[in-house]
Design goal:
Length: 246
């Protein structure tokens, strides 16, 4: 399936999260250095942000750089930071014109200043936009996010402004980087691996998982539509039995 006509536009997942894997393999298959795979991956980012907005996705969360990615060779980390900065600068106009609101998940403070400053600027300039929310997970790790939330909650308990009995799912969600946003309905992972890689560990509890062998630099609108179509064939039961969900 490659045609959006075949999608049920009343059943588009509100929040789609993506593990953009396979850039390195894409480059290696062509005898190219790995950063060129990441560069090609930026074109997929542009295509999927556009497609998400067109198809009525409300929130798109992209795993652009994990806490563990800091351990890659310095040249690759540098190349990724450069691509992020260029993307934020060169796409700002398009993002703004398309009413996209940019957000960041993760440890903003670990980013080099030249990336962090451009990111802050892009977030501020698009804050009032009412269209697609684009979450970029940068220096992001699901466990780190949960630890940061626990620390904030513990601090409130210590100060006496919160009682431990008041801690529930909603309160924990409200202390995560995705506070105020619905959880992902669909997780897409490109590159064929079947793991979560420390991504949105709390928020993905009831997400449908869609894993494709397609490498991220090859993943374009038709592949995104195929993922949404697969989602539309799933029956989401949230722990209930089939008869209860109709
Ligand atoms: C995983 O592929 C991908 C990443 C670590 C980085 C993803 C970054 C981009 C797509 C470009 C920059 C992002 C934005 C938002 C502009 P891998 O290198 O682990 O691939 P492999 O598994 O084939 O080695």
């Amino acid at each position: 399936m490659t045609d959006s006509d075949e999608l049920d536009l009343d059943n588009i997942p509100s929040h789609v999260a993506v593990i953009m894997d396979g850039n390195g393999r894409w480059a290696q298959k062509r005898g190219l250095p790995r950063p060129l795979g990441h560069r090609q991956g930026v074109e997929s980012v542009q295509a999927i942000v556009r497609a998400g907005g067109e198809l009525g996705v409300k929130i798109l969360t992209l795993y652009a750089f994990s806490t563990e990615n800091w351990n890659r060779p310095a040249a690759e980390v540098q190349a990724l930071m450069g691509l992020l900065k260029n993307f934020l600068q060169s796409e700002l106009k398009t993002i703004t014109e398309n009413n996209v609101s940019l957000r960041c998940l993760g440890q903003r403070e670990r980013l080099p200043d030249e990336v962090g400053n451009v990111l802050d600027d892009a977030i501020a300039r698009t804050a009032e936009n009412s269209g697609l929310i684009l979450n970029l997970a940068l220096s992001y790790g699901g466990r780190n996010e949960i630890v940061r939330a626990i620390r904030q909650i513990a601090e409130k308990c210590r100060q006496g402004v919160l009682a431990p009995e008041e801690i529930d799912d909603k309160l924990v969600s409200a202390h995560l980087d995705t506070a105020g946003q619905a959880d992902p309905d669909l997780l897409i992972r490109t590159g064929g691996e079947s793991r979560l890689s420390n991504f949105l560990l709390w928020q993905l509890s009831y997400a449908e998982l869609y894993i494709t062998e397609t490498l991220w630099p090859d993943f374009r609108k038709k592949d995104f539509i195929a993922a949404l179509a697969a989602f539309q064939k799933r029956q989401r039961r949230f722990g209930k039995i089939s008869n209860q969900v109709g």
